[in-house]
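Page 47, continued from p. 46.
Same chain as before, 242 aa.
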Amino acid sequence: DVTIVRLGDASIASPFTCRQTSIFPTTKIVQQGRCTLVTMMQIFKIQALSCLTLAYCLSALYLDGVKLGDQQLMLSGVFSAILFLLLSHAKPLDTLAPNRPPSTICCLYMTLTVAGQFGLHMNLLFSAIALARPHLKAAWVCSPESELSVSNKADGIPAPPCLGACSTVGCAGCVGGTCVSDRDPEADFSPNLLNSVVFLVTTSAQVATFAANYRGRPYMTPLLQNKYLLYTLLGALFAFGV
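Result:
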């Protein structure tokens, strides 16, 4: 028997069905495709900036023997997931844009955008860390050979200067003949001014990254019409500002 494909029947070549007899749905397909392409490029760009910024923050904190807390990292991750979910709800415009969006992430536009924004974030983070670092107490590693080492560390008293061979390894001081260091990345999390400043600055930069990289016209609805994403960004700015 000959199978007759009637108007409106789905076929292998197309996962959708259109019952119109004109080519008007083709425009809708192109609009949806461009909106999806722009959304994916936004996600890749934001992810790249977030990874670069977080890598610098973790390296800077490690050098000072400080780390971010589990609650801070969990809050930042959940907040990012919510923003990505709201970002993916953007809809295409009713009119087809005359220009095509970039077809690949490996292009000059993406490279310059990520490099420029990361330079701004680096400048902001470097300035914030430099301003917060002088207000930290000395956090040197205690030596079990000194009875006063625990109380000295709690009071922020620096370790005595190194003498002899101990001074050649770049340590912060000697306690009871044992070389100690001002870096203790394996210690338990202890909130201080530096990790609080880094958390607030990185989260604020994350909000700015989503707002600045939202493409909007001419491929998708602008940010002012994406109410849920707009209100979430404004609420986050208000919360972190307070």
